[in-house]
Design brief:
The chain is an alpha+beta fold. It contains 8 helices and 14 strands. The model has no long low-confidence stretch (mean pLDDT 97). The structure holds D-MYO-inositol-1-phosphate and calcium ion (3 copies). InterPro entries: Inositol_monoP_metal-BS (IPR020583), Inositol_monophosphatase-like (IPR000760).
């Protein structure tokens, strides 16, 4: 079986695992701060996916948010990048609106992306060169839009930050409206389907964005960091993803704001 079909199978199995497991009690812990939560279900689901992959492909490598693959520093071979539950806060508070997200890279090249809306039962997926799909329906090529006629995915938290906040505030003022779904992966799937025209994130990890980037690329969109720089898939970075026209409009916008650039450099370092 090909990796792509295998990935679709295990992500759905992982979704079934979560749906069963969440009927029982689970422990919720804080990680770095009281707003950064992790549950037993996150950890168990990551282990479940990790074991399924290695059972079938013992030589593949896996990076997961909850601790697998922390020693991986290069992209050689087949690399699976796994977020077992993207949207843990939604999982804890709502028991819905969360996803499993898996991006697969072969020798550093994107291969396929998979995002499962667990409670919605919808799988967004793409293999490079074969188009992007919502279940078995092929997604249309993303249509160009302008900021003033778009819905933009954005977390309100960034508006209140000192150096970078004013840039995000201007987006709120200029766009038709913003939305925040609490799962970066789902938000990227919504960009791919055109429900959102673009989405902006100031800090995401590879497991948050790797699958979404591949799906959006296959749907005809573009993803870079907020300054228009290419993403290094093993690093955390800001993310700007959307149709090509709005992507250009927004990178022009962020790169014309000196305070924003300085704030971005302070957090993410110098241009690569
Ligand atoms: C988080 C979600 C959230 C985004 C955070 C991520 P997690 O992932 O994607 O929408 O704003 O930056 O860390 O921790 O729920 O997997
Ligand atoms: Ca987390
Ligand atoms: Ca995540
Ligand atoms: Ca997670």
């Amino acid at each position: 079986m090909e990796i792509y079909e295998f990935g679709q199978r295990i992500i759905r199995e992982a979704g079934d695992f979560i749906k069963l497991r969440m009927k029982e009690d689970f422990k919720v812990d804080a990680k770095l701060n009281p707003h950064d939560l992790v549950t037993d279900v996150d950890k168990e689901t990551e282990t479940y996916i990790y074991e399924r992959i290695l059972e079938r492909y013992p030589d593949h490598r896996i990076i997961g948010e909850e601790g697998h693959g922390t020693d991986i520093e290069d992209m050689s071979g087949v690399l699976w990048i796994v977020d077992p539950i993207d949207g843990t806060l939604n999982f804890v508070h709502q028991l819905q609106n969360f996803a499993v997200s898996i991006g697969v890279y072969v020798d550093g090249e994107p291969y396929c992306g998979l995002i499962l809306d667990v409670m919605g039962g919808v799988l967004y997926h793409a293999r490079v060169g074969s188009g992007a799909f919502k279940d078995d329906i092929r997604l249309d090529e993303m249509r160009d839009t302008t900021l003033d006629r778009s819905l933009i995915g954005m977390n309100a938290n960034w508006v209140i930050k000192d150096q970078i906040g004013p840039a995000f505030k201007k987006i709120v003022e200029q766009t038709r409206s913003t939305r925040s779904y609490g799962s970066a992966a789902l938000e990227m799937a919504y960009v791919a389907t055109g429900i959102l025209s673009a989405s902006v994130f100031f800090r995401l990890h590879p497991w948050d964005y790797s699958a979404g980037m591949i799906i959006i690329d296959e749907a005809g969109g573009r993803t870079t960091n907020l300054l228009g720089e290419e993403i290094d898939i093993l690093k955390k970075d800001s993310i700007l993803t959307g149709n090509k026209a709005i992507h250009k409009e927004l990178t022009d916008y962020f790169t014309s704001d000196a305070a924003f650039i300085a704030g971005h450099r302070r957090v993410h370092g110098e241009k690569r």
